[in-house]
Amino acid sequence: MRALCLMAFLSGTLNAAAQPTLADQAVPVTGTTYGYHDTPFMAAGRGGMGVKWDFSSLPPGALVPYRWVSTDIAPGAGAFPTNALVLQVPGDPISYYQQGDTAFYWLGTYTDNALVRFDPPIPMLDLPCSLNAHWVDTGIAAVTGAGRIDIRMTVLDARADAWGTLIMPYGPVENVLRIRYSLKVLSRTDPAVVHMSEVRHAWYSDATPMPLLVISERTGWPPPERTLRWLDGSWMDGPNRLFQPIPLHAFPDPCDENVTVDLPAQQADRTTLQLVDGSGNVTKQWPAEFTSPQTRRLVLDMNDVPSGVYTLTWIGRDGTLGSTRLTKR
Q: 234, 241 in Cβ contact below 8 A?
């Protein structure tokens, strides 16, 4: 009996030691870009200790670049501290963040139509953060736009509700911490009126600052109301192999029937080029196959593409990311 108790104690000790603790390594840095696959929704699954979440069947989806930049080049930066971190995601408002002594804070957002500032800033990640960490925050959101200011209330309830192994299309990732967020935006005069709400599950590893998987269910936001995005597996090759933006050169620009683009030298593999419109939607995509590490010239058919301004994006399996602006007449 004593032996069984000792084994149980040692097992619990080892499990506790294996649980990740998110600290400064969970905070992104400017100049980095991460690629997420936007794929059909799946349920987040259960919480608890030692969970195995099997998302190995997730398909590749529209690749969405998440770019962290400085306030020097970000629209709306004058409303936020100069040392803020800025996240740019196609189709989403520009978001501003800042690292504090005990948390990673969300300061607000900016679009051409509205500026949103949170007071106090919303703590999106408790630092350090480990299993069962729980934080609750209330504040106000000042929405400025169209010559007026609208004040609303914000309520956040966040908890690190699970840890375990996350099985992804590129393989298993052990010692992953999941955080469940519940965020509500309420009427200041009648808190029973919920303008917007979101329940988000995010899976973190201490090996990369960005969540490996994010599943959200939202109301009151622009569609879609349910989303799933997963971080491309190239992060596993180390910080020097993460998405490194490179310029692509497409010609002619503007284009009519065809556009020619040179992809950089690349190891043998298959990948995809995507044409993304101003709302972040993939208008068209083309498969590209490398049979040897050499520069490849591709001619892309644009006949069925509506007129407009697009971003032509290519993401290689080794973590490189190339993009360029392109106009279709």
A: yes
How many residues would you count in the chain? 329
Q: Hey, what CATH topology would domain 243-328 get?
A: Immunoglobulin-like (2.60.40)
Q: Render each residue's pLDDT in the chain as its tens digit; 329 residues.
A: 444 343 333 334 334 446 889 999 899 988 788 888 899 999 999 999 999 999 999 988 877 888 888 888 788 888 999 999 999 887 889 999 999 999 999 999 998 889 999 999 999 999 999 999 999 999 999 999 877 899 999 999 999 999 999 999 989 999 999 999 999 999 999 989 999 999 999 999 998 899 999 999 999 887 789 999 999 887 776 655 555 666 778 889 898 889 998 876 655 556 778 888 876 677 888 877 766 666 677 888 888 999 998 888 876 655 556 778 888 88
Residue indicated by tokens 């490849």: 296
Calpha distance 151→173 (Å, rounded): 42
CA distance 126 to 268: 42
Domain boundaries, the chain: 17-237, 243-328
Q: Residue 291 and residue 308: Cα distance in Å, rounded?
A: 33
